[in-house]
Design brief:
Dipeptide-binding Protein, domain 3, Peptide/Ni-bd, signal, SBP_5_dom, 3 domains, D-Maltodextrin-Binding Protein, domain 2, alpha+beta, about 35% helix, 24 strands, four-stranded mixed sheet, transport, Dipeptide-binding Protein, domain 1, peptide transmembrane transporter activity
């Protein structure tokens, strides 16, 4: 009886459990259906709004007028900025659809414009935010994007842009001159965490709307990049960001406030979080451009380990892989990799440079690196040629300064600092560093040993190997380097607070590099990009003069004088400019090399996947 009773109870328990599980599954499915229904309702609401606006426009004849204006750029009806993208659509196998999938090697701290300060967030924002003009990657000339035309006053102080009248943000709200005015005013609001942008926009006296689709930039004084600054300003939608003027701290601490007029959008413009494990953009179905974006989605996976990224690429789960030099040769001989890949190695003139920054002030007090002779000694101890050969296998060139070796800003007579142990030791002795107790370490006159932490990004294996090499090189001179690996968000926090001894990082570059934000003494402030607190009045004067000199022939000698000062001062030990060693999946078509580098990811987008090779659905 007991056994039968136990069996019956057990069966009843199983049945009750099964019923509960089925109820939970049913509730889960209902929840998913409600969520899906919510998405559908939101989409239908937006579509209904668009239809109402379209009907009103048709009734007023505005649609015909907008079409005529938009097509006025070229005989083909395609504006110059979209000509290359349009040529892509004429390929026999061109097709829309599929996803573009890449990987970031680090967690992102925030995607919010202005608050973010790294190249990764900037890459994402580039798909969402737009500007008045863009550069042609072949000629490097400016071409209208949101702007149709423009005029520059004879004195260069006033630039007027006529804007397209058919552009909307991804939520359907029209983009007007008021959004340009707001973008400027928002950045210049002191409570908004945008010191980098304010440092440049401070040259502008005012931005004003002259009607709904004309915007005027008025400068306080001449500036050599006045047109670039005005035309390249990322346009923030006033209706979306204006509420944060009343709650700036919420904006400054936000992680994913991102909405714009670009070809892609966040599915939730307020919802991204750093723990998401990826960044995903979806096609902006309202995109105004003459050529619609080819991919349904653009996705970046967060994969911090180099080997894991390679495995993910090998398995076809990401579309590109930037190879490390020590694996590049073997990958070129890897039949599986080469069978599935396009292969590129290149160094465009806008390639950035890596450096070691010596922090000259910490906690309000000067550090040992405040003495120029110490910085010079450290540059003599940094064998850049050996780093390039041993760590990067020759796929790099020494960086003399912030200016590219091919730039007109660079003085070709200047050469990289040479590795010289004897000169380094002599300079350190001159400062007062000697091995006073016979332990092999240098000490200052107070007996304090010469030791410091070198902060670097922990997930970069090549940087780790370089730091260990430098540790050995410095030790030969009696200097103790303690490697100090950090996560990316922690590194950025240390930079903003200037809370580090020395740090190795990199800067992106432009066609002509304005060094104001990195080296001008006014930027040696909390959240400023002169994170090493470097101050040189003579350099400040030259930077100010160069920036105010519009004539290129007169400006370049000023930059070259500034370069000579930086070469002598060594605020950074300039390391190298690296080649890009890239493998791209063959499903990605229309890859071309331009004066700005490989056209993959350039906007307007110029790559696609033929229909037969597509593998992701909407």
């Amino acid at each position: 009886m007991q056994k039968r009773s136990s069996a019956t109870n057990g069966l009843l328990t199983v049945l009750i459990t099964l019923v509960i599980v089925l109820m939970l599954l049913t509730m889960y499915q209902i929840d998913r259906q409600w969520l899906k229904l919510g998405d559908v309702q939101a989409t239908m609401t937006e579509q209904a709004k668009d239809i109402r606006e379209l009907r009103a426009a048709l009734a007023s004849g505005a649609v015909r007028q907008q079409s005529a204006n938009a097509n006025a750029g070229t005989a083909s009806g395609i504006s110059p900025a979209f000509q290359r993208a349009h040529a892509m659509t004429q390929q026999p196998d061109y097709a829309q659809g599929d996803w573009s999938v890449d990987a970031f090697g680090t967690n992102l701290k925030t995607l919010t414009p202005l608050v973010s300060g790294d190249a990764y967030a900037s890459e994402v924002q580039g798909y969402v935010l737009e500007s008045l003009v863009t550069r042609n990657p072949d000629t490097l000339a400016w071409e209208g994007l949101i702007a149709k035309s423009w005029q520059v006053s004879p004195d260069g102080l006033t630039i007027t842009f006529q804007m397209r009248d058919d552009v909307t943000f991804s939520d359907g709200v029209p983009l007007t001159a008021d959004d340009l005015v707001f973008s400027f005013q928002f950045i210049m609001t002191e409570a908004i965490q945008a010191p980098r942008q304010r440092a440049y926009l401070d040259k502008i006296k005012e931005v004003k709307a002259n009607g709904k689709y004309e915007v005027v930039f008025v400068y306080k004084e001449p500036y050599f990049e006045a047109f670039d600054l005005a035309g390249g300003l990322s346009i923030l939608p006033k209706h979306f960001y204006e509420p944060y003027l009343q709650k700036p701290q919420e904006f400054n601490e936000s992680k994913g406030l991102l909405l714009g007029s670009g070809p892609y959008r966040m599915s939730d413009p307020k919802g991204w979080r750093p723990d998401a494990g990826s960044v995903e953009l979806v096609r902006n179905e309202r995109y105004w451009g003459d050529v619609q974006p080819p991919f349904n989605r653009v996705l970046w996976k967060i994969i911090q380990n180099d080997s894991a990224r390679l495995t993910t690429y090998r398995n076809g789960q990401i579309d590109a892989y930037g190879a490390r030099p020590n694996e590049y040769a073997s990958l070129k001989n890897d039949a599986q990799i080469m069978d599935k890949s396009h292969n590129f190695e290149y160094m465009p003139p806008v390639a950035g440079y890596s450096y070691i920054g010596w922090n000259q002030e910490r906690g309000g007090k000067p550090t040992r690196f405040a003495d120029k002779r110490v910085r010079q000694a450290m540059s003599h101890l940094t064998d850049v040629s050996r780093v390039i050969q041993d760590i990067f296998l020759g796929y790099a060139e020494p960086a003399v300064s912030p200016f590219s070796n091919t730039s007109k800003q660079h003085n070709p007579s200047l050469q990289p600092w040479e590795f010289n142990l004897e000169k380094a030791q002599a300079l350190l002795k001159e400062v007062g560093y000697e091995d006073r107790n016979g332990d092999g370490l240098l000490e200052d006159q107070a007996g304090k040993p010469f030791e410091f932490k070198l902060t670097y990004f922990e997930a970069n294996e090549d940087t780790k190997r370089m730091v260990l090499l430098l540790k050995d090189l410095y030790a030969r001179a009696g200097v103790k380097l303690e490697p100090f690996p950090q996560e990316w968000p922690v590194m950025l926090e240390s930079l903003n607070k200037k809370d580090f001894d020395a740090i190795t990082l990199g800067w992106t570059s432009g066609i002509e590099t304005d060094i104001f934000q990195m080296f001008h003494s006014t930027q040696a402030k909390t959240d400023g990009d002169n994170s090493i607190s470097y101050k040189n009045p003579e350099l400040d004067k030259l930077i100010d003069q160069a920036r105010a000199t519009v004539n290129e022939a007169e400006r370049m000698p000023l930059w070259q004088q500034a370069e000579r000062i930086m070469m002598d001062d060594q605020p950074y030990t300039f390391l190298m400019r690296r080649q890009s060693l890239s493998f791209v999946d063959k499903r990605i078509q229309n890859l071309q090399m331009t004066k700005l580098g490989l056209n993959r990811g350039s906007l307007p987008l110029e790559n696609y996947v033929p229909a037969a090779m597509q593998k992701y659905t909407q």
